[in-house]
Amino acid sequence: MTLARSVALGLLACCAALAVVLLACGSSKSGGKPESDAATESSAGDGGGDAGSGTTGVGVVTFSELTDSGGTFFAGFSETVPVLATNCTALDAGPCVTTSCTAVAPSDAGAGDASPTTAPTAGTLTITGGVFGASGSSIAPDNGGTYAYASPGTIFAPGDTLGVKATGGQVPAFPEQTVTATPTIVLTAPTASTGGKITIPTAQPLVVTWTGGQTGAKTVLVATALFTTGGAASTTCAWDASLGTGTVPSAALKPLAAANAETSGVTWYQSADSTFTVGTLSVTLSARVTQGSLASFQ
Predict the structure, then answer these.
(1) Counting beta carbons within 10 angstroms of the beta carbon of residue 66, is it exposed (0 to 12), middle (13 to 18) or buried (19 or more)?
(2) How far is the C-alpha of 115 from the C-alpha of 181, rounded, in Å?
(3) Per-residue CA distances from 198 to 169, 185, 195, 240, 245 (Å)
(4) Which structural domain range is residue 238 located in?
(5) 55-58 contacts: CB < 8 A, separation 24 or more?
(6) Closest by CA position to 223, among listed 104, 93, 109
(7) Which of 24, 38, 113, 195 has its CA 20 to 30 A from that of 58?
(8) What backbone phi and psi angles, to 5 degrees, belong to 219?
(9) Residue 111 resides in a domain
(10) CB-neighbour burial class of residue 216 (10 A; exposed 0-12, middle 13-18, buried 19+)
């Protein structure tokens, strides 16, 4: 998978979840408000999709939950790889990508700007496995063209086979695609202090270690900082989960350290992804159990 597509998928997936994303992506056919899991340097890389595969767009389908509650499902599709907004920059730091965004001026974010577009949809989705069972549950797209489901409780367990299929729309119909939920990893470094916050120096690389990694899966760590100025920065790193260790370069951490940081945190998870092609879209299906902590970047 190329770096450009990895970044595009990561940012597109985040469109439903992270505040930094609201600043990160420019207008495109991805739908929603002109704004990550869309793209940083993707438009300057391979132009979208996978080079040589014939795909020009992306999609994400994600089953996610916290360790003991809060299960969610999200799906979204884009006919092109969304482009990075002009108020943001992206840094490629080996296993990590850091996106830094300044605040959007009020004159650029008012109701008089271009109307939000609607993302292409795949008709009705049926999701199976976990609490949805073999018969599954149907989910229709929302007004923005994305799909979302939320539960106060968990929706799957490690080892569950989770699936999704679509009746078709602007995005063609596709048969059931599946992914197996991986075990929850245990982060052994860095660790939180007595106050429950992880302190991360940014002047040197950060060594991350964990147990429970599975062959064929990846461990992902996301560090985010929101600033009182309205700006934000986010670093996403991915490593082979079976290695049990990975290093975040100092260059990927420094944008997160600022005296005006309002809220900072770190989340991590293990994920075994399944990628399939629908029309001209390369779609990534994943299942993850997310853990996290407040953080201080110094």
Answers:
(1) middle
(2) 38
(3) 45, 17, 9, 23, 17
(4) 3-105+126-297
(5) 55/277, 55/280, 55/281, 55/282, 56/80, 56/81, 56/280, 56/281, 57/29, 57/81, 57/280, 57/281, 57/282, 58/5, 58/8, 58/9, 58/12, 58/281, 58/282, 58/283, 58/284
(6) 93
(7) 113
(8) -100, 130
(9) no
(10) exposed
Rg (CA), the chain: 18
- pLDDT over 90 at 130, yes or no: yes
pLDDT confidence band for 195 (50 / 70 / 90): confident
Task: Determine contact, residues 126/168, Cβ cutoff 8 Å.
Answer: no
Q: Are strands 96-101 and 88-93 parallel, antiparallel or unpaired?
A: antiparallel
Residue ranges of the alpha helices (H) in the chain?
A: 3-13, 21-24, 250-253
Residue 141: C-alpha distances to residues 149, 195, 284 (Å): 10, 41, 18
Which 8-state DSSP code applies to residue 190?
A: S
CA distance 175 to 270: 26
**Gap between the Cα atoms of 240 and 35, Å rounded:** 30
Residue 117 lies in a domain: no
Which residues is 281 bridged to in the sheet? 57, 278
Q: What would the pLDDT profile of 2-50 be if each residue is shown by its tens digit?
A: 333 333 333 333 432 343 443 444 434 443 332 333 333 333 333 345 5
* Close Cβ partners of 108 (under 8 Å, ≥ 6 residues apart): none
- Is residue 157 included in any domain, yes or no? yes
Read off the tokens for 92.
Answer: 């490629």
Total structural domains in the chain?
A: 1
Name the DSSP class of 30. T
25 lies in a domain? yes
